[in-house]
């Protein structure tokens, strides 16, 4: 899976707000013109519905799962409001169309996921959803940090735990590190795995753990804590899956190509294989 050009979240939100604003705004202009007795061709305010349809179609198109209904709305907007027809275009039709666009927007957000484009031939599923959710929640991670996250996953997959830990410790030692706290914890868990488990493999590994406020960013739910060994194992799997997701969302194209080949390793961590 690849997320090559993560869309700016604020821009996407503005476009989403523009759909109901433009569609209902056109109807509001028509109503205001009628109340003020201003002669106005109804087709002009109807352009708001057309513009809103185009924006909705764009928002549907940039999603990995394409909503054909939303993508086709500009066609209906042109048929209803721009092409001369036997029936007259009225405010009621504009209001109904605006309400329909708003409903389709809500449906698009709930059923068709993030606006992050995806390529690379990796299909949908729990791991796909987790990567998308991680990208949306973290919004931005420096590309060099994301690249190191990918390198750690690769090293770990090869069994090179000491090298993975050495790279992870870099983010525990840097003063003023502005990496997200949950990501710093993930790096710390990788470092702890090498420092404690490698020297005493027969003992349960006492690693640091994610705080409850970061649980929404984890793939596996945290265990109840009664089994220390299981708790550490789940924390390690969550750390690696988080680093994998961060690398696939925020790293450079070259690094994503390398990390993508370890998708089967990530699927095993996720319990999908």
Please render the helix and strand layout as text.
Blueprint: H1 9-35, H2 47-61, H3 68-71, H4 73-82, H5 91-111, H6 126-138, H7 143-157, H8 161-173, H9 181-197, H10 228-250, H11 253-260, H12 263-269
Helix pairs in contact: 1-2, 1-5, 2-4, 2-5, 6-10, 7-8, 7-10, 7-11, 8-9, 9-10, 10-11
Q: Give the class from helix and strand content and strand pairing.
A: mainly alpha
Number of helices: 12
Number of strands: 0
Portion in helices: 55-70%
Percent in strands: under 5%
Which whole number gives the mean pLDDT? 78
Low-confidence stretches: 1-7, 115-121, 200-205
What's the story with the biggest beta sheet? none
How big is the Rg? 25 Å
**Assembly type:** single chain
Describe the structure.
It contains 12 helices and no strands. It has 273 residues and is mainly α. Helix 6 crosses helix 10. The longest helix has 27 residues, at 9-35. It is elongated and about 75 Å long.
Which properties best describe this structure?
single chain; 273 residues; mainly alpha; 12 helices; elongated; disordered N terminus
In short:
The protein has helices spanning 9-35, 47-61, 68-71, 73-82, 91-111, 126-138, 143-157, 161-173, 181-197, 228-250, 253-260, 263-269.
């Amino acid at each position: 899976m690849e997320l090559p050009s993560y869309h700016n979240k604020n821009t996407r939100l503005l476009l989403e707000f523009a759909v109901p604003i433009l569609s209902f705004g056109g109807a509001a202009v028509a109503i205001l013109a009628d109340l003020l007795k201003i002669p106005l061709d109804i087709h002009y305010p109807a352009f708001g519905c057309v513009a809103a349809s185009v924006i909705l179609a764009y928002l549907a198109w940039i999603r990995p799962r394409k909503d054909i209904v939303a993508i086709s709305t500009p066609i209906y907007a042109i048929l209803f409001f721009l092409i001369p027809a036997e029936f007259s275009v009225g405010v009621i039709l504009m209001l109904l169309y605006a309400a329909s666009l708003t409903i389709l927007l809500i449906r698009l957000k709930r059923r068709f996921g993030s606006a992050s484009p995806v390529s690379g031939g990796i299909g949908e599923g729990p791991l796909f959803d987790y990567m998308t959710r991680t990208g949306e929640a973290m919004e931005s991670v420096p590309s060099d940090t994301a690249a190191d996250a990918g390198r750690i996953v690769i090293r770990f997959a090869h069994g090179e735990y000491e090298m993975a830990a050495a790279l992870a410790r870099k983010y525990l030692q840097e003063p003023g590190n502005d990496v997200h706290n949950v990501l710093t914890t993930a790096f710390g868990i990788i470092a702890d795995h090498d420092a404690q488990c490698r020297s005493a493999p027969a003992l349960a590994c006492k690693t640091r753990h994610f705080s409850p406020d970061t649980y929404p960013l984890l793939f596996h739910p945290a265990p109840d804590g009664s089994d220390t060994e299981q708790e550490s194992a789940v924390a390690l799997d969550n750390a690696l899956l988080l680093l994998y997701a961060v690398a696939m969302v925020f790293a450079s194209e070259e690094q994503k190509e390398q990390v993508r080949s370890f998708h089967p390793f990530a699927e095993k961590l996720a319990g999908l294989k």
